[in-house]
Each structure stands twice: as C-alpha cells, then as structure tokens.
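Narrative progress, year one. The postdoctoral researcher (J.K.) led the effort to move from monomer predictions toward full complexes, under supervision of the PI. The following entry was the first complex the group processed end to end, covering 913 residues in total.
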Amino acid sequence: MAAIDSQELHDFLEKLVQDYEAMKSPILTMLNRIQERYRYIPVEALYELSQMTSYSFGDLNALVSSFEDLTTEPVGEHLILVCDGTACHAVGSVDVIKAVEDELGIRCGTTSEDGKYTLKSVYCVGACSLAPIAMIDGVSFGRIKLTKLDDMLASLRTEAAS
Amino acid sequence: MSASDILAPLRERGWERLYPDERIRITVGLGTCGISAGAQTVFERLSARVEELDIDADIVPVGCAGMCYAEPLVTVSIPGWPRAVYENVDEQTCDAITKALARSRYAKNNRMGFVYRDWLEDFGTWIDLIEMDGEEDEEETCPDDIARLPFLRSQEKRLSASWGRITPWSVEEYVAEGGYAALAKALFELGPRDMIDEVIASGLRGRGGAGFPTGDKWQAVTLEEDETRYVIANADEGDPGAYMDRGLMESDPHRLIEGMAIAARAIGAHYGFVFTRAEYPGAIRSIERALAEAREHGIIGKDVLGSGWSFDIEVVQSAGAYICGEEGAMLEALEGKRPDPRPKPPNPAHAGFEGHPTGLNNVETLAIVPSIILHGAEHFRSCGTKESPGTKVFSLAGTIKHAGLIEVPMGTPLSTVVEDIAQIAKENLHNIVFPEDSNFSEDRDASDGIAVQVGGPSGAILPLTLDGLTLDYEGLVDAGGIMGSGGIVVLGRRACVVDTIRYFLEFSARSSCGRCFACRELLAQAAQIVGDICAGKGYESDLAQLEELAKRIPRGSKCGLGKMAANPLTSGLRYFRDDFEAHLHGSCPHLVCKELMHFEVVAKACPGCLCCLPSCPTGAIKGSFGKPFVIDQEKCTKCWMCVSMCPYPALMAFPEPAMQSHGSADARQEDTPTCESQLPEPSVDPCIYCNRCIDACRHEGADILYFEGRGRDRTLKKATFDGEELCMHCGACERVCPTNAIEAIFRERST
C-alpha cells in the first residue's frame, strides 16, 4: 500500500471538519468521505480526527470496526458486491458468489493480491425483483446468469487493463 | 411571503410539467430497479431519438412505479390523450415509440396499457386524463386500462400514488400533486395538540416493525420539559428482501420531508435526521436533491412557508450495520459511538439524540402523516382493519411473476397478495428430480410455491397454504411472526426452508451486537445446529434442542433483534417439520443443500454433445463425444454450471436417497470425535460487556478502550496508534470491573 502523505491527510481532514462543522451528527459522513477518498480508513486519520473534534479515539475505533463498509485495510480498485439478500439467496446467489470466486481466484470478503478487485457479499441492495444481483463499482447488474458471468467480468478485466 | 404565495406559483409550474398543453411528456423509471434493468440506456436512447426526430417532448426521470418486474418502464402522454405505459423497454422499443410519436401516435410494441385516470392526493379524487377531442384512432377505441391488470386490480394506491409518475426531487411536481398543503394546514390552521389528537384518532401504527401507535410516541415527547427536541426518520431498512423505504425515498422524497416537518411541528422539534443505509445510493441522492429544492423555495429552513417557524433536515448515511435499524443503536451511531442498542427505559421519546426527547419513526410512517393531517383520521380509517387501519406498502420478491412494490389495505389476505398480485412464477425445473417424482419424464413446468417469508430475519416462514392469514399486525403475530418492515419473499420448489432458516440465523448472529448472552451464544449455537443439519450432520435430538433454544433466545435478549431472531426458526419448526426430518435422514427435498444432493448423467438421455464439458471447473465430467458422460462424484463441487449448460434432460440433480438418521439422544456429545463440527463452546470470557471500564477510561482522560466485532467476536480492545501504547496504566478500568475481567483480557500487559 502506498504510504499516505500525512500533510495531505491533515489538509483533507481539516477541510472535512470545516465542511461538516454545521452538521449535528457529522461523524458517519466524515468517515464515509475518508473511506471514499483513500479506499480505507487509515489509523492516522482516526487519531487526527480525535484531536480535531470532540470524538474520542476509542469511539472512532469502535465505530470503524462496527460498520462493514468501513475498513482499515485498503479495498481493491474494483469493488464487486454480490447480493446475498433473501430473494437473491433463494435463487442461488451462493452459486454466483462461488463462480465469481473461481473466476477471480479470491475468496469472498478478500482483496486480490494485486489490489485490483475486492469481492464482498452484501445483504440486500433493494432490487429484489432483479435477483440475483451484483454491483460492480456502484453499477448494478440484475438477473445474473451463471453462463453469462464470464462476459460481465471480462468487460471489467479489459477496463482494468486499459 | 405567505404560504400561498410560495405554493401557488409552484403548483402552476408543476401542473404544466405534469399535464402539458402542447408538449409530449415521456417518463423513464430511474429507480435502482430500473437502472439494474438498463433504464439509463433507455433514457439516453430516447433523448437522442427525440432530438433526432425533432419531437416536441420532455423526457423526465421518475422513480419506481412499483412494477419492478416490468422495468425498464416508460410512460408516454400526448396532450389530451391517456398515458401509455410501456414495459421491458429496450432500444428497439425506444425507436418504435419515438417513430410513432413523430406521427403523434402511440406505438404498440411492449405496451402494457393506458392510464385513463390519475389519483390526485390533495383532492382525494381521480382526474380523467382523457379528453378525446381529437380524431379517434381506430386502435384507441378499445381501452386497455392498466388499472385492470391483475397486479394493480387489488391494490389501493394512496401513499404510493405518485411513485413513478413525478420527478422525485421536483418540488413543483410534488406541489402540483397536492404536496405541502398538509404542512401549510399544520402551520397555519392546526395547533400541535390538534395534530397529535388527529394522529392518535387515526390509529396510525409504526410501519417499521412492531407497530407501536405513532400518536402515543409523539405525545410522550411533548410531555417532556426539555425544549430541545429532534425528529428522526429511520431509513435504515436492513431487512434483506425489503425495499419499500428505498422505493419511497427514490420516488417521492418530498412526502417524507413533509411528514418529518409535520412531525417536528407537532412535537416541537426544529431539527431532523434521515438515517439511511449506505446500500441505497439512489435514495440518498434523491432525498438530498429534494431537500436542496425545498430549501431553495423556503419550504424547509429558517422560515418554513413564511410562518417564521424553522426546521431543517440532515441526511446521515450509515455504512453497513444491520443493528443500526434498532432505535437505540441508531442514536448511538448518530452520536458517534459504537452502535449498540440502548437499555430501555428511557425510550427515545424521553431521552433520545444527545439525551433530548426525540420522535423516532419509520420512513413510511412519517410519509403517511401528511395525508392524515390533510384528509383527517376518518379518511385514513376508511380502509384497513379496526386495529390496523390504513394501507401498507409491501415489497414482493422471490419466485413470482410480479416482483415489485404494492400497496394494499391492512388485513388483505396473504392469498390475495400471493395468488392474484404476485402470481407464482414457473421455474425451470427440467433438470431436477424431486423425491416425490416417480419418473422424470412428466411435465414439470408448473411450479407451486412452497413457502412465504414475511418480515425478514425477525419474521416468520409460513406455508402458502395457511388458511385465513391476513396481512395486519395481529394476523402475523398469531401466525408466529411480525409485520417487520413488510418484505414478502415467496420461496419456490427450488428453495429449501431449512437452508433459509440457517441463512436468517447466521444473519442475525452476525448482526448481533454481542452484549446479551442469549443473542450472542445461543443464537450462534442454533445457527450452527441448523447449519449441521443442512450439511447432513444432524441428529434426531437436534430438533428438541432447537426448540429449547428458540424459546430461550427471545427470553434472554434485550432488544428487538434478539427478541425476534428466533421467529424464522420457531415458525419453521412449527410448519415445516417434514423438511427438517428429511434433512436429518440425509436428503434435501429441494436440492439446495449440497451435501444432501448429487448430480448424475442419465445415460439414455445423454447424446454426448460436449456442452457440459468445458463448463466444469474441476474436470469432474468424464467421457468422449457421442457417448454418455459420467460424473466423478469425488471431484464434483456441485456448482450447477453443467446443469445450466445441458440442453437435454440428461444432466440431472437428484436428492440423496433417504436413509436412517444418525443416532438419537445426546449422540452429538458422545459422537464428537467423529462429528466434524462441534457446537461452539459458550464463551468463558468473564467480561459481561457492561461498559464500566470504557466509561472509567473516558473519565480518566485516556479514552482508548472500545469494543470491536459483533456477536461472538465482540472483544474489548485498546486503541493503539503507530504501535504506540496510548494506555496510561492508571488502572481505573481494572478497579471498576465487576467481574475482574480486565486482567484476563489484558494479561500480557499486567505482567
């Protein structure tokens, strides 16, 4: 993982705190912004944030560890979420996850060694009518067929290569 | 500026947009469901074609009309004519639609029907869209009214009337639909007391779970002396299989804003939060944009509708924690603490956000409020049952033809919803042999649903044949579940009830905060036992043990999650005992549990066509071209790939034949050496998760202790930074610990 420029991080956090000063409950929004910016939440960021705001370092650690989307390890460049909600589960999302695992050569919930892909299962993206469903980098794909999975991931590959 | 100065011009402009005199209006459903089905492409294609053909038309993004099964959904209205609805629109249909429009006609391709009348909320009436003053087209003389579709026939669209019809964030279109009239009434005509009385009289109950009367909640807030009050919309719709709050926020966010403003006015709050899931980016965008428009027009902000009263809303995006749907946990998260449910009392109404009285309601509940204020309690009570008045939005999913969002009166029989509205879908069962099939040549196109799951992980799994079950709070509790947020998932013949129960138990065990013993340990045990049964390692005695656990889990849990987590299990044992028995005898009747089924090539049906061969990831299929193949059972990982490739009824899935089950009483304990998985040992951690150490650490100024992990993984941790120990070794945590657990946890340090 590339080392974080601590000056840059400091400036980013300062701006963040300023931007959300007026909010009555800014903390989750700030953590989400940090995760979006760095693709993970560096411990340095939590420490600095605890110095800049009234939130304690312990509470911030507790918060980050309680939410599945917030990570202290970087996630891959491409985030593949396979929905395992009730409706998707009932139509075989487990087999979809298995197939994606085989295709990418990583286990669900992990990131590939080159840092390109992260595969996760999520509980329901709220589009049950199109089950089974997956979200690749925020774009959702509905009615996935095992036989067409290759094409879906192939386009991702070429995109990643280019 | 008075309210009518603000609303009247908005209404006029909105009306022009909704029912233009000159221009054609084309809407494209751009909810999450629409986009997943490719609506973005449709939108772009239509825009390009309209420009190319120089058609005088507006192409408008709208939300979800509830007919998710028909997405991408496009509607077209030519001035003076009814609105045509098109389903499953692709690029060809776009071309056909625009081509016909260039000649001022409606295309026939993929046309679902026409809408002749729209429901207008503010007048409580229908308006006729059809004027028919032009020359009558041959094809239009036979009306195919969309309201006659089985999907819509039994519905009563009150709350969801504008979904998929108006641009979600457009304040003009919302006002034209009668929006913000209730807020004006609340501000200028009614006092807070009148509003609360009206809501109490309406009998409105919380749409998010247990169904607590909304008016009583509000009343409790007003009885507090503290003048700083908050209103919170619970949009953390975490139940897998439920998506009505997403639909509401994506399609009609102003209704939620109006409802929150009225609630705030009634309870005396000036600030509100919408706490929503991270998995709903579309809903977050929609509501934030709606808020910006509302602020711009003085509907939200320092001077609401010129009344001098101030109210503002903040959207807080969660980051993936199911437990945040519990109100105490949500409040903790809002305050920047670990989301653990709070002990009650005090309820949020007495001490909520930062200790101030807080009105915390579900999104749908708040969105219903404007209609109650505007039309009165009587109108609201005009449908539904005495105990559960009004309508309820349900989400339909599973093996059905019509997945989507529906709104029906409370008390509607489940059979009406499943058989008339949802309609069980045909499944592709050609390569599957069910245990009850004597031979596999029979036509198995027809499929019967087997079960229906209502209310997510806290709801019940019920047989479809359950007589007289009605969808209202009491009916569902009698059947062994709860309303939950109202997600209905129909399970077909290819879904295994036992596997579904395992899924819910694991979900709840993973989501548990880990504080109460029953929810942390017993739930994990129950999940493990059901998991073992699915893996063919079950014992006769397991069912009795599961029954015992199902009784103990709610008894020993503090919050709603633990209290309800055993509902899928309890109802499963009550209605689907046969399925459990079959699993115990080594056979999964629905061919889901991989250990209890296998694949075989039926030699007489296999021409040896090679279709399956390349699909097998493990090389388990053996044979040569023109001859029947065989499967190496040792290598087969049961991934179903080959079955989906086989064009013949040759590669078939079979259940394992039923055999004698493993031993009976207490066999699990005696048998452990041979039994691969053991039940999880109850935690011997002396920590009782009382939080005293964390408070002490905070008091001493170090503030570095925190709990990490959920369920059984919950552990006390010390925050470290750069490998540096931030602990001051003051010993405060050790002194306050009532069970002497600190030493055990941090033993390495104390030596």
